[in-house]
Amino acid sequence: MCRSIRLNPRYYGCYKILQKVGVIAYRLLLLTNSKIHHVFHVSLLKKSMTNEVVISITLPKINDYGLVKVHPQAILDKKITKKGNKVATMVLIQWSNLFKEDTTWKELDELIKQFSTFNVNYKG
């Protein structure tokens, strides 16, 4: 089975809330040329956990299916975890075409299988 190298990110970055719309929706400040609607249900939003206010001024590039084509750019951190009866090495990945906030933990073995040309050397 061939896995896709495309990931559908859960969040696209930080955007300023302009106004509350009704009980459970918010209007966000997006670029005027954005091809997405600017009102979102509260379940689709995530509170920023940083004290630094950085408002995204661009949206990630997506294809016609709403997916972002990404590949790993760098390994930022590494940890060992227990998965069932086995030990697994997890790595924190910075992805291309995504924001810094969109780093994710991934099993090193899966990363190597999925992105065989990526240099997995971690210096940390």
Q: What can you tell me about this protein's structure?
A:
It contains one helix and eight strands, in the order ββββββββα. A hairpin with an 8-residue loop joins strand 7 and strand 8. By secondary structure, the protein is mainly β. The N terminus is likely disordered. The strands form three sheets. A three-stranded antiparallel sheet has the order 2-3-4, with no helix packed on it. A three-stranded antiparallel sheet has the order 6-7-8. It has a domain of 49 residues: OB fold (Dihydrolipoamide Acetyltransferase, E2P) (Beta Barrel). It is elongated, with a radius of gyration of 17 Å.
What's the quick description here?
With 124 residues, the chain is mostly beta strands.
Keywords, separated by commas or semicolons:
124 residues; 3-stranded antiparallel β-sheet; 34% strand; mainly beta
How much of the polypeptide forms β-strand, as a percent range? 25-35%
Number of strands: 8
Question: Helical segment tally?
Answer: 1
Reported for the largest beta sheet, the result is:
3 strands, antiparallel
CATH structural architecture of the domain at 66-114: Beta Barrel
Kindly report how far apart the N and C termini lie. 33 Å
Radius of gyration using CA atoms only: 17 Å
Secondary-structure-based class equals: mainly beta
Q: What is the CATH topology classification name of the domain at 66-114?
A: OB fold (Dihydrolipoamide Acetyltransferase, E2P)
Helix percent band = under 10%
Mean pLDDT: 76
Order of helices and strands: EEEEEEEEH
Summarize the topology.
Elements: E1 6-7, E2 17-21, E3 25-28, E4 39-41, E5 68-69, E6 72-83, E7 86-95, E8 104-107, H1 108-114
Antiparallel strand pairs: 1-5, 2-3, 3-4, 6-7, 7-8
